[in-house]
Each structure stands twice: as structure tokens, then as C-alpha cells.
Amino acid sequence: MKNNNEYKSDYDNLNNLIFKWYNKTETQKKNISIKEDLENFTYSNSKEFYKDKIFFSKNENILDELKLTIEFCDDNDELSDIWNYLQFMTSSHTISKNNIRIIKILLKDLNTNKYLGILELSGDFYNLGDRDKYIGWNEETKKNNLKYIVCLSTCIGLQPIAHNLNIGKLLSLLVFSKEIEEYFYNKFGYYYVAVSTTSLFGKSIQYDRLKELKLIGYTKGYGISQIPDYLYEGMIHFMKKYYLDDYKKITNSNKMRKINFISRLFGYKEDLIFHGNKRGIYFGYINELSKNFLNGNINEFNINNIRTVNEIIEWWKIRWAKKRWENLYSNHKIKLKYELKNMSIKEKFNEYIKQYVYNNYHTNENFKRCIKEKNSKSYNNNKLLKNKLEIYKKKRTLNFHEIIEILKWKEKKINNEKYFDNKLISHKKVSIYLSKEYNKNITEEMIKYYWNGRVMLHIEEFKDEYNDNYIEKYDWYKNLLNNI
Predict the structure, then answer these.
(1) Tens digit of pLDDT for each residue in 355-369?
(2) Is 139 exposed, middle or buried (0-12, 13-18, 19+ CB in 10 A)?
(3) Which residues of the chain have pLDDT under 70?
(4) Which residues pair with 118 in a beta bridge?
(5) R_g over Cα of the chain
């Protein structure tokens, strides 16, 4: 039996915790999760040890020198530790907790014993409507044959070499190799006949133009990766204390179902699990037998006609790596910076950077002249752009983050979402809420002004804020403005 005063106090405390988190910007939420993850994550060696495991080369003939292979980590503690560290420190997600048919793989250069990328295969999601429609499944056939599809749950090229050589393309292709199929068969007793994966933000550059993977739809924008541990733990504590019978019913269910229970209990409906990032769903058959096998039209499947790892690597070098490397190398645009979460800005720069600049600068006078001209031109262009932007910003009443918050409310209204009181979103309500949130007078007219794009944001502002995915964010912004 609930103690009303104690229940109300605990309810209000958790509600306040949820409300404060819910109303933070997406950048603030992401920073909370990263900080929390870094505090809890443990690893066996120093970060210098792992950094030294990442492949890098500035040699012009890099593709001739590479001798690539794959390593399976499952039965090797040292390799698993390296894989876990690289996945955690390079991915926007924490280590996968999916334990259904997991296989972890490292892409390695045999000449240097260093790594260029990581892969993970796991059991595919049960609820993925666009995939089921694409295959032609009914519920009964899906129950019987879902195990024959693997999810490419991790596919990460390690920077900086991933950028320089299109490593993401290679990793995606390797899942369709004979060696990984055979390893899977030896471990689980059957072949997988198709591959499914999702991109972080809509259409993926990494999977684009690969004939092996086709964009077949988008997720609905629901997930739980954005929920920090401290908030989840508070929810579970509240459920166990006051709703133990309900908790027991879903104790073996996934995390999303538990969060959704609290979300509805506190009046958020499905808002807490809605992050709005509609991921692209990519799907690929292993060969021409796959679709008939998944639909139960044939009972046998073989991999006789699929490519080996070496065949895929050689094809990738010609199709995806050679032109990219030559273009970056000739234009002196080779990426030199690591991207690991636990490194300072100074540490992220590759140890070869000084040597790279020094050798070219002192041995090639033409290079020296071109770089000076390029730097001078770039400096002047950037200075001019920055000056224009600064003047532009001073004319605006609100800053970048405040304008983005207004546009997020516009997106909610377009999607027929409701305000906190479960009523329709209006300029007036957004004005009242944001005035309180930012402790400044944000009028209805100001909301309309930015809502309808009468003052434009510049792409450089998105670049400063969002770094690698600024183009997707800018496209989101432009599409939103087109929806007046």
C-alpha cells in the first residue's frame, strides 16, 4: 500500500529529473551520455596501447603495401579487449548488450599488425516492418526464418585511415564474404542468407552505392540510446518501490518496455523513447537463393558463388580506395587526426603530422609554394566569411541554439505531437515555454519570425556545432523551412 506523501515526494523528484533531462538540447543529452559512459567504462591497458593498434600511413603507395585480413575475436580475450575499446571509443553507442549470435571481427594489416576497422554481427531485430514487407514475410514465416538474417550492428572504420581509404565500404562488403559465412556456420550450424543494418541518420554515405545493400525504408525514430543510466536507474527504483507487480511482469523484457512504462505513467506517452532520428534501413541478400529461402520456397542454401575476403579486398582497392587516396594525396588533404572519445584535442592529432608536413615542406619547393598560396587564400576566405557571419549574427535577436529549439517545436507540430498539457502546440505556448527556459523575453512574433525562416542560419554555423554530421543537420533545417 502506497504512503501518499512519500509516493508524491518520490513521484515529484523523478518527474523533475525526467523533465530537466527531457528539455535539454540534443547536444546536451549526448554530452551527458558520453561523460557517463566514460566514467563507467574500464579497459585493460593504457590509451597509448590502443592508439598504437590503429593503422596509419602517409606513404604514396599505401595500397600496394597493405596486406589485409580479418581476425575473429570471440575466443580470444586480448582481441576482444581491443575490439571493445575501439568500439566504445569510436562509436556514438556503448558496447552492445545484444547477446544473440554475436560475432566480433577486426580488420587487420598483416605487415604492421595494426587495425583499420571493426565489425559486429548479431541477431536481427524482430520488429522491422519495412524489412518484413521487402522480403514478403507473414508472421509465421518470420518466426521460423528470422534467425537466418544477421544484423550488421557495428561497422566502424578507424580514423584517420578510414576517411583516407573508404574503409567503411570495405567493412560493409566483407559481411558478404565466404570466410565470415563459414565461420558463422561452424559456430551456429547454419548459414545466414541476408544482412540487415541501420544508419545513424537517414540515408548513409557508407552504404550508399553498394549493390549488396539497398535502402528499403526508415525506422520510426524510437529508441533508448539517448536515455542516460542515472535516469534509467531512477525509473527502475521507482517501479520496484511502487509498481512491483507491473515490474515483475516485464522484468525479463527489454529496456525500452520498462522506460515506456514510466513514460506513460508520467504523462509523456512515448515521448521519452522518441529521439526523432529516423534511421535508414538497409538490407541485402547473400545471393539469388536468399529470398526464396527466407520465404520457405526452398529448403537448402549454399554459398558456392560468393566472393572470398581477398577477392573483395582487391575489388575494393580498385573501386573505392584508389581514386580516393590519389585525390586526397595529390591535393594534400589526407586526414591526420584520430577520433577517440578519451583523447584531448592535442592527442587526437596523429604522431606523423609533424613528419608529414616537414618532409613535404623541405623537399618539394612546388609543394611549399602551393601550400602557402592555398593557406593564404583559405585564410582570407575564412576571414571574410567569419566577418559576414559575425555581422549576420549580431542582427539576430536569438542565438543559434535558441533558434534550433524553436524549429524543433515546429517539427513536433508538423508531426502532430502535443504540448506538455496534451493540447495543440502554438506559437504562444512555445513563446511562454522558451521565455522561461532561457530566462529572456521570446515573443510570439519572434517565434513566427524564425519558424518561417525569415532569418536564415548559415551552413558554417552547423559545421561549427555538429562537426561530422553537419550536412545532415543542415539538410534537416532546410527541409523544415520548406514546410511552412
Answers:
(1) 455 445 445 566 556
(2) exposed
(3) 1-3, 26, 30, 33-34, 36-38, 40, 92-100, 200-203, 220-225, 251-254, 271, 273-277, 350-395, 454-455, 467-468, 482-484
(4) 106, 156
(5) 25
**Neighbour-count burial of 348, counting CB atoms closer than 10 A to its CB (0-12 exposed, 13-18 middle, 19+ buried):** middle
Residue written as grid cell 515546429: 410
* Letter string b/e over residues 419-429, b meaning 16 or more CB atoms within 10 A of that residue's CB: beeeeebebeb
Sign of CA dihedral 234, 240, 241, 245: positive
Which residue in the block uniquely carries the three cell numbers 581509404? 165
Report the alpha-carbon distance of residue 427 to residue 448 in Å, rounded.
Answer: 7
Q: What is the pLDDT of residues 212-240, one digit of tens each?
A: 999 988 876 666 667 777 888 888 888 88
Phi then psi dihedrals of residue 334, to 5 deg: -60, 135
Measured between alpha carbons, how far is 385 from 393 in angstroms, rounded to an integer?
12
The set of residues, in sequence order, having a beta carbon less than 8 Å from that of 374 and lying 6+ positions away, is: 332
Q: Which residues contact 28 (CB under 8 A, 6 or more apart)?
A: none
Task: Name, in order, each residue with C-beta under 8 angstroms of 183's C-beta and a sequence gap of 6 or more.
Answer: 72, 103
Terminal alpha carbon distance of the chain: 52
Q: Residues with Cβ < 8 Å from 165, sequence gap 6 or more? A: 62, 63, 116, 321, 324, 325
pLDDT of amino acid 95:
46
